[in-house]
Specification:
Bound molecules: guanosine-5'-triphosphate, magnesium ion
CATH superfamily of chain A: Urease accessory protein UreF
Low-confidence stretches of chain A: 70-88
Distance between the termini of chain B: 41 Å
CATH architecture of chain A: Orthogonal Bundle
Radius of gyration of chain A: 17 Å
Largest interface: A-B, 28 and 23 residues
Structural class of chain A: mainly alpha
Mean pLDDT of chain B: 91
Number of helices of chain A: 10
Radius of gyration of chain B: 18 Å
Oligomer: heterodimer
Largest sheet of chain A: none
Largest sheet of chain B: 7 strands, parallel
Shape of chain A: globular
Distance between the termini of chain A: 31 Å
Low-confidence stretches of chain B: none
Number of domains of chain B: 1
Strand content of chain B: 15-25%
CATH class of chain A: Mainly Alpha
CATH class of chain B: Alpha Beta
CATH topology of chain B: Rossmann fold
Shape of chain B: globular
Number of strands of chain A: 0
CATH superfamily of chain B: P-loop containing nucleotide triphosphate hydrolases
Helix content of chain B: 25-40%
Mean pLDDT of chain A: 90
Chain lengths: ~240, ~220
C-alpha cells in the first residue's frame, strides 16, 4: 500500500462521488433505511453484492493495466517521483491489447449491471474519475479507456497509474461502495455523524474480506435486484438530491 | 525533503486555463435573491447576440430549469440541471465534476457556444464558485435580506467579480437604506464592481448584461 490509495479512496477526491447516494436516497424513501441499524444492514448488503462486483472489476482492470508488474504483489520500493507513478517503472503504453482488455472489462461491467440507471451512474462516475485521475497520476494507460468507462474500470486504471496493486484497487472499490451511501444517509436522515463513522469503521473486516475475494479467479457476479429496482424508481423522480 | 526536490513535479503546466470554448459565468447567492430571474433576464437580453446555454444547480427539484423552460427563455437542449447531493456549495466549489459534465455536454451539443451561465443552488454568504468551473462569477443578494448584508461580507460578497444587489424596488417596504448597501459594498469590495438593480423594474437586466458583454470581449482579447 502507498499513500496513493488514501488519495484514491478519499471522499475529497473531486471525482463527483458526492452527488451519488449509492441507492440510499431511494432506500430511505422506500422506508428500508431509517436508522443506524437499517443503514448498517443496507451497507453490508451493498458491499457484498455491488461492492464485490466493483472490487473484482477494479482489481482486474489494475492487473490488465499494470502489464504484469504486480499481480497481487506490492511494487518494490524504488526511485519515486512525487507526483507521478510511484512504482519507479512507467506503466506500459496503451497498447491495442490493453484497449481491448479494458473494453472487455467494461462490457463485463455492463453485463453485471442490469439497471440502465445504474449503468449511467457508473459511467458518469467513471468519467469524473478519469478527469481527475489523468491530472493526478499522468500515465499512458488512461488513453486505453473509453471516454466514460464504468467506474470500477476507471478505478482499476487509476490504481495502476498511481502505482497501486490490484488488491489496493479492490479495497478502494469495496470501501467506496459503502462510504458514499453512508455519507448520503447521514445527510438525508441527519444521523449522528459519529454513529455513521462507527458503522463504516466496523465494516472494515467485511470490506477487507470483499477485497481479498476480489483477487480470486473469475469476476464476481453477485447481483441485488433490490438495488436495481431502487435505482430505476429513483431515476424517475423529479425531487431528488442525488444523481443516483 | 530530497535534494532533487522540484516543485514543478507537483504542479501541472498551466492547463487550468482553457483555450477556446464559451465564457462561463457563475451566478451565485442566497436562496431567493433572484439568480434564476437574472439568468432569465440575461438569456432574453443576450440570447440574440450570443450562442448561449444555462446550467442550474437546484438543491432539490428541477424548479429553476423548469422555470427557464416554461418561460421559453431558451430551448430545452440549452438547459441542463444537475443534482448536488444535498451540498450545493460542494458542487460549485469543492467537487465540480457534475457541473463540468453538464457544461461539457452543452459544449459538445452546441459547438459554437459562446456563453454559459451556471446558476448555483441558493446557499449562504460563504458560497463561491471554483475558478476551475467558471471564468467569472456574479453574486446576487437581495435588498429584502436587510441592508446589513454587504457589511457582513463573506467570499461571495467580497470577492465575486460582480456583486448584484437586487430588488431595490423593495427597499422602502423593508426599510433598507440603499446608500448604506452601496457604501458598505464599496468598502468590502475595493475596486470590484457592484450594481444595485431591480429586475422587477428592469426585466432586461440592462447593466448586468453590459457587464457580461464586457467579460466576453475581454476573454476574446485574452484568447487572441
Ligand atoms: N420585488 C422583486 N422581486 C423579485 C426581483 N427579482 C426577483 N424577484 C422575485 O424573487 C423571487 C425569487 O427569485 P428567483 O429568481 O427564483 O431567485 P433564486 O435566487 O433563483 O432562488 P433559488 O434558486 O431558489 O435560490 C421570485 O418570486 C422573483 O419573481 C426584483 O427585482 N424585485
Ligand atoms: Mg434559482
Amino acid at each position: 500500500m502507498t499513500a496513493a490509495l488514501l488519495t484514491l479512496a478519499d471522499s475529497r477526491l473531486p471525482a463527483g462521488g458526492h452527488t451519488h447516494s449509492g441507492g440510499v436516497e431511494q432506500a430511505i424513501a422506500a422506508g428500508h433505511v431509517h436508522d443506524p441499524a437499517s443503514l448498517a444492514a443496507f451497507l453490508l448488503r451493498r458491499l457484498t453484492t455491488a461492492g464485490a462486483v466493483t472490487a473484482g472489476l477494479a482489481a482486474a482492470a489494475t492487473t490488465r493495466s499494470s502489464s504484469g508488474r504486480h499481480r497481487g504483489h506490492v511494487p518494490s520500493p524504488g526511485a519515486r517521483s512525487p507526483a507521478g507513478s510511484s512504482s519507479g517503472e512507467p506503466p506500459a503504453p496503451a497498447s491495442s491489447e490493453l484497449v481491448a482488455a479494458l473494453r472487455h472489462l467494461d462490457g463485463e461491467a455492463d453485463a453485471r449491471t442490469p439497471s440502465p440507471a445504474l449503468r449511467a451512474a457508473s459511467r458518469q462516475q467513471g468519467r469524473g474519475l478519469v478527469r481527475v485521475g489523468r491530472r493526478a497520476w499522468p500515465s499512458p494507460v488512461w488513453d486505453a479507456l473509453p471516454a466514460a468507462p464504468h467506474h470500477p474500470v476507471a478505478l482499476g486504471v487509476a490504481a495502476a497509474a498511481g502505482g497501486l496493486t490490484p488488491r489496493d484497487a479492490a479495497a478502494a472499490a469495496a470501501y467506496l461502495s459503502v462510504s458514499g451511501p453512508a455519507t448520503a444517509a447521514q445527510r438525508l436522515l441527519a444521523l449522528d455523524p459519529l454513529t455513521v463513522a462507527a458503522v463504516t469503521a466496523r465494516l472494515a473486516p467485511a470490506i477487507d474480506a470483499v477485497a481479498d475475494d476480489a483477487l480470486r479467479d473469475g469476476l464476481p457476479a453477485d447481483t441485488d435486484p433490490l438495488l436495481d429496482l431502487l435505482a430505476e424508481v429513483h431515476a424517475t423522480r423529479g425531487d431528488r438530491f442525488f444523481a443516483s | 525533503m530530497p535534494p532533487d526536490h522540484n516543485l514543478a513535479d507537483y504542479v501541472d503546466a498551466p492547463t487550468a486555463h482553457r483555450h477556446g470554448g464559451p465564457l462561463r459565468v457563475g451566478l451565485g447567492g442566497p436562496v431567493g435573491s433572484g439568480k434564476t430571474a437574472l439568468a432569465a433576464a440575461l438569456c432574453r437580453t443576450l440570447g440574440a447576440e450570443y450562442d448561449l446555454a444555462v446550467v442550474t444547480n437546484d438543491i432539490y427539484t428541477t424548479e429553476d430549469a423548469d422555470f427557464l423552460r416554461r418561460n421559453a427563455v431558451l430551448p430545452d437542449d440549452r438547459i441542463e440541471a444537475v443534482q448536488t447531493g444535498c451540498c450545493p456549495h460542494t458542487a460549485i466549489r469543492d467537487d465540480i465534476t457534475a457541473n463540468l459534465d453538464a457544461v461539457e455536454l452543452l459544449e459538445a451539443r452546441h459547438p459554437g457556444l459562446e456563453l454559459v451561465f451556471v446558476e448555483s443552488g441558493g446557499d449562504n454568504l460563504t458560497a463561491s464558485f471554483s475558478y476551475g468551473l467558471v471564468d467569472v462569477q456574479v453574486f446576487v443578494v437581495d435588498v429584502a435580506g436587510g441592508d446589513k448584508v454587504p457589511r457582513k461580507g463573506g467570499p461571495g460578497v467580497t470577492a465575486s467579480d460582480l456583486l448584484v444587489v437586487n430588488k431595490t424596488d423593495l427597499a422602502p417596504l423593508v426599510g433598507a437604506d440603499l446608500d448604506v448597501m452601496r457604501r458598505d459594498s464599496a468598502t468590502v469590495r475595493g475596486d470590484r464592481p457592484t450594481l444595485l438593480i431591480s429586475l422587477r423594474e428592469d426585466p432586461a437586466a440592462t447593466e448586468v448584461a453590459a457587464w457580461v458583454r464586457e467579460q466576453v470581449r475581454v476573454r476574446r482579447l485574452q484568447q487572441g
